[in-house]
Specification:
By secondary structure, this protein is α/β, with parallel strands linked by helices. 48% of the residues lie in helices and 13% in strands. Helix 1 (29-45) runs parallel beside helix 3 and helix 9 runs antiparallel to helix 10.
Amino acid sequence: MSTPFRLTHDGPVSTLTLSNPEKRNALVREVWEDLPKAIDELSDSGTCRALVIDSEGPHFTAGIDLTMLAGAAPDNLGAAEGLHVYHMVLFLQEAFSCLERARMPVIASIQGGCIGAGVDLITACDIRLCTADAYFTIYEINMGMTADVGTFPRILNHLPEGIVRELAYTGRRMTPEEALRWGLVNSIHDSQEACNKAAQDMAQEIATKAPMAVHGSKEIITYCRDHTTAEGLDRIALWNASNLKSSELMQAMQAKTTGQPGSFASLPEIKHKKA
């Protein structure tokens, strides 16, 4: 089997490429185990200002590797089988929660099929671009299970409830035009190359902005999504009171005036985390 993904860097922009096209980029165990480590390290380093997730081959991802589900719960667990599956699902959920938690924006470039757990993945990203041949399906219903790795808590932030229920109950494919109309994706592109280029161009544009301001925007948007307006207003006031620096404002204004890149402070490296 090929390496399931690779991470490359172009200055402050990093790209994570799903690279197992012979299996339609099925999310094998190595992805679930190694992706959170890679994303956390990238976020903690403070050097990455934007991340693009793309993939090789005709499909973005076929979703979770079915061989993982076949051995989900050993036969000898008895009454503890449910608890075993519960902790396994929490483990799987972390593989995508790390994208939402990361300090840098994450842009998904999607071609072909985005199936099952692929929808979980892209809904944890900040921005989604797709090709004209892309499609999206909450496929778990066709396997006799409820999607459980993050689809429903996040996709309801992007699509109307009735549409989500229809997709979840039927397992049908959502077209790129429908995804654009409802706001699941930001734009549609004619080819995989064009979609990847648009994602890279957007990432490079984001990377020219003050890293702390971008990080703050991501932090506050996510917070406001999940809290009341009053709580969100208080949060942004506290954020700027703690983190807004006049030197960054001056750099931003100078960059806007001169057209030259601003000399912004990088995000501090995170060396010590809570246990």
